[in-house]
Amino acid sequence: xxxxxxxxxxxxxxxxxxxxxxxxxxxxxxxxxxxxxxxxxxxxxxxxxxxxxxxxxxxxxxxxxxxxxxxxxxxxxxxxxxxxxxxxxxxxxxxxxxxxxxxxxxxxxxxxxxxxxxxxxxxxxxxxxxxxxxxxxxxxxxxxxxxxxxxxxxxxxxxxxxxxxxxxxxxxxxxxxxxxxxxxxxxxxxxxxxxxxxxxxxxxxxxxxxxxxxxxxxxxxxxxxxxxxxxxxxxxxxxxxxxxxxxxxxxxxxxxxxxxxxxxxxxxxxxxxxxxxxxxxxxxxxxxxxxxxxxxxxxxxxxxxxxxxxxxxxxxxxxxxxxxxxxxxxxxxxxxxxxxxxxxxxxxxxxxxxxxxxxxxxxxxxxxxxxxxxxxxxxxxxxxxxxxxxxxxxxxxxxxxxxxxxxxxxxxxxxxxxxxxxxxxxxxxxxxxxxxxxxxxxxxxxxxxxxxxxxxxxxxxxxxxxxxxxxxxxxxxxxxxxxxxxxxxxxxxxxxxxxxxxxxxx
Length: 506
Ligand code: ATP
Known about the structure:
This protein has 506 residues and is α+β, with helices and mostly antiparallel strands.
């Protein structure tokens, strides 16, 4: 299923709507519909339970979105949370200069992939891709070109050399993807934080920011939490909450939004042991994804070449979205940068007394940070499938099915009377529904033929359908249908709750 179909499926079935759609929408802002909010809450629950409830030494908080403006000075966001912006003078479209250059490199990579595919066809089973990539002169030449482009880009980004970014765009002859025009402005830094104003203070003094990450709410509360919970290092603080970024180019649906939700955990440790914990969280977080049944082939690590100002090691867990492998989650070794810098600017010592070492130090931090919306997109794009299945009379038909892990599915069980206009059936079905809804998020549906009702439940990912038929009235049994295998079996109503397995893979 392609990306466009996925977006329209999300709208049609009440997962995601564009924000303020009646006014033609607000770009890169989205609303979650009735099924969307359930799926999103289930993702949050899976994260919270795995990170907080399953770890004795991790606790949660819920900090405010507004924070003292000095927070963002200390964190480096006021000075360094920028993207390089370039405008096309003819089309009036805005771009990120680094993304234009990356796009240029990607075009060369696409040529390589085409050559590889051709060679694979020619050589058949004997084809060795690695050997081909490292020995074919044309490919080697192209790969060297890509490496040189990306190296020069990384250097210019590190040195904040806007002039060289512009020079690269000119040298590579990059045109505006919309209009084909090469009439560019200079490249300039653009800060991604949204700002707003306190009501009672005029001017710069009253300037506030909407938080661009949830992490800082954790850092500034480090001492509060440590004291009130008497946690000993190593321990973690976790939080789920909204973050805001004024992204220059916000395409790709909920992948890059201006208002989104993060699930972050900062793990406080002794200085010097950060690589051990970095490796631990790297592995633990990948396993969290795999436990949902997400295929390993769709997940990979990507080490950062270009480390942020606060990090001494960083890796992304990338997922293969419909538009390619992209960052889903980041694991960062943030050193003592944040606590150190808050200590300095606030004048409050952010240290921890380690009773075992009998000394005080500013703890180091390893963080795990994942976008809830990106996780949503990853799950939906992995789960949504069109497939051919045998229908009731043995013929083949196609169905659209969302094969979500049952614990994430918005509706766990649909309760369906075989016929709508037989009161004995609808009454019995309503009774079953009343019992099940105390245990699971359920839906009662009596409209349309049974086959169509199954298809509707498949389309929203409901793992179980329970059907009440004439045998139910005789012997108190129902059929329970499995979404993925389409197998139906008869079970007693009393045994139904035990048949429905929607537990989280903790
Ligand atoms: P990117 O390089 O894609 O902009 P980032 O490296 O800036 O992401 P982080 O600052 O590490 O991202 O944020 C942690 C996580 O928050 C990301 O892995 C991603 O899942 C999520 N995230 C970041 N920006 C957005 C956004 N604009 N919309 C949705 N999710 C986001």
